[in-house]
Amino acid sequence: MHYYPPESRITPLTVIRRERLLPVQGQVLVRPGETVGPADVVARCQVPGTMRVLDVSRELHLRRDRVAGTIRKSPGDAVQANEVVAAPGGVLGRLRRACRSPVDGKVIEVREGLVLIEEAGTPFELRAHLKGQVTNVMPNRGVVISAAGALIQGMWGNGGEAEGVLKLLVDSPQKPLRNRSIDVSCHGTVVVGGRIMDEKALEQAVEAQVRGVIVGSVSADLGPHLESLPFPVLVTEGFGSMPMSDPVFALLHANMGREAMVTADTKTRWGARRPEVLIPLRAEDEKPVEEPGPRLLQVGDRVRLLRAPHVGSVGTVRELPSLPRPVESGARLPVALVDLAQEQSVAIPLLNLELIR
Questions:
Q1: Which residues pair with 321 in a beta bridge?
Q2: Per-residue pLDDT tens digits for 82-106
Q3: Residues 6+ apart with CB under 8 A from 69
Q4: Which of 53, 89, 224, 296 is 20 to 30 A from 182 (CA-CA)?
Q5: What predicted TM-score, i.e. pTM, was given to this entire model?
Q6: Which CATH number is 302-356's, of 1.10.530, 2.30.30, 2.60.40, 3.40.50?
Q7: Contact yes or no for 341/286 (Cβ under 8 A)
Q8: Residues in Cβ contact with 124 at an 8 Å cutoff, skipping those fewer than 6 apart
Q9: pLDDT tens, 115-126?
Q10: Is residue 207 predicted with pLDDT exceeding 60?
């Protein structure tokens, strides 16, 4: 049976290459071969502001064919917030309401009683977010940074990026992250726990000013609260009460005390992206392997199960039957026989498997 399963990277040492791109064209500040740290600025740009339309006719209660003489700005003129853009002339005009700019910016167009103002741009600095070497520069757009290190891909993240020292607050992947375990020693760190079941732990993490949180699962009820947090939260297994998988916990435990980069952005459609933890390491004793491309599922592969009753369990593919087999639902589906640590091999539909590499 030939099947390309979805993949999850959980590897102790690999070559990590990540693009760092500006939102709009700007200036790249580094050159190929330079070594950068997570906080180093590698590029900067000016993000254009939004467009604002002033309806002078409505503001001054004048007909559109009589508005032109009241407008005091021309295309290309700079304006400041609350500056008069249009006002009637004469003695009576001083008593009437003036039309003022709502923002700092520049007048782009004046036509038929309407004034188009572009809000002043916002300076944007792009940081490396990864300790490594610049291997490629895309003029005016960004860079590619390469490093050797550990890589863990998660299932969901609330957005944002952060760097900090890994701090495990539990001794087992089954144990939840408790608010009482988060204290002043967690300030500026990325804390790790088995799962989060209530808001108290998150509130304590905000008070302790942690840089980020990594857990196996979170309660679905906490979704709205997670979106408002000032730090990234990365979930390795999904929503519910699942423990963190053993391979993920073991890799995080092995790198406790090292600096980690958390990217909690999640995209599920075009340009799909999964949240991830990057842990730069020195590749002195072992040569890091390149990030591989998709491949067929094979006997001996380590897989994670994605559906109940074995959701989150990790096992090894023992056999790939050539013919479909009956499953619990009564349907006949292509399956893999997977050896789990707790029991005999179980037949799992191929669609319910994720390859761990």
A1: none
A2: 999 998 876 555 556 788 999 999 9
A3: 89
A4: 224
A5: 0.78
A6: 2.30.30
A7: no
A8: 22, 23, 26, 44, 45, 46, 47
A9: 999 998 899 999
A10: yes
